[in-house]
Amino acid sequence: MTMITQNMDYRDGEVVLEGYVAYKDTGVAKPAVLIAHDWSGRREFACKTAERMAALGYVGFALDMYGKGIYGKDGDVAGNGALMSPFASDRALLRQRINAALRAVRTLPQVDAARVAAMGFCFGGMCVLELARSGADVAGVISIHGIFAPGAVSNQKITAKVLCLHGHDDPMVPPEQVLAFEQEMTVAQVDWQMHVYGGTMHAFTNPAANNPGFGTVYSERAANRAYQSVANFLEELF
User: Fold this and answer.
1) CATH label, 3-237, candidates 3.40.50.720, 3.40.50.1820, 3.40.50.300, 3.40.980.10
2) Counting runs of H as helices and runs of E as strands, what totals does the chain give?
3) Among 50, 33, 49, 61, which residue's Cα sits nearest to residue 238?
4) Strand pairing partners for 23?
5) For a tag on the chain, would you pick the N or C end, based on fewer CB atoms within 10 A?
6) What is the pLDDT of residues 101-160, one digit of tens each?
7) 8 Å CB contact between 52 and 75
8) pLDDT tens-digit profile of 155-190?
């Protein structure tokens, strides 16, 4: 069956955003999986992940946190950091922006609006965790080498199941941040899981990650394990 892919404009207030939709047209509404991009923007990696979700039988929707046509690039630490910083420092803005994507995906005729999950990589992991913290009505969220530290905005009641896929040697998320997050989820009575991969650094699913000094290194073994966990979690949800 042919996979259909298309770009889709949507809005957060006056900001125009551009998502990327991938699905197989079976004539039946399917669960949707939002994909939140890393700090470089909604580039090829996020779009290929949307296609990966479509291959599993879902509607993949690579969302846009920055705005239509706004992208960083691999290796540009300062530039990518400047794109991410307004959202990392203002979690209310971040929650507003990702909830706009949730509303947009629910308008798609091929989506079963009652069955939506979200996954995100690095900065995108932070985004989907904030989606859950906002109290959004989603079945589950998956953080893949994401940032766990919360912002200054209070949490709403978290109803989503939470799966975190984390590299033990990730210098951006030290063990104390992991423990604090686990305690946060436990106190909130969330159905949560933490899968930790030994000998694994940040950005381990991204084949372009090859900067040990910065702490970003691709691991094919960890990536394969992570994607299997993603498939299992989504199967459990839907």
Assistant:
1) 3.40.50.1820
2) 6, 10
3) 33
4) 4
5) N
6) 999 999 999 999 999 999 999 999 999 999 999 999 999 999 999 999 999 999 999 999
7) no
8) 999 999 999 999 999 999 999 999 999 999 999 999
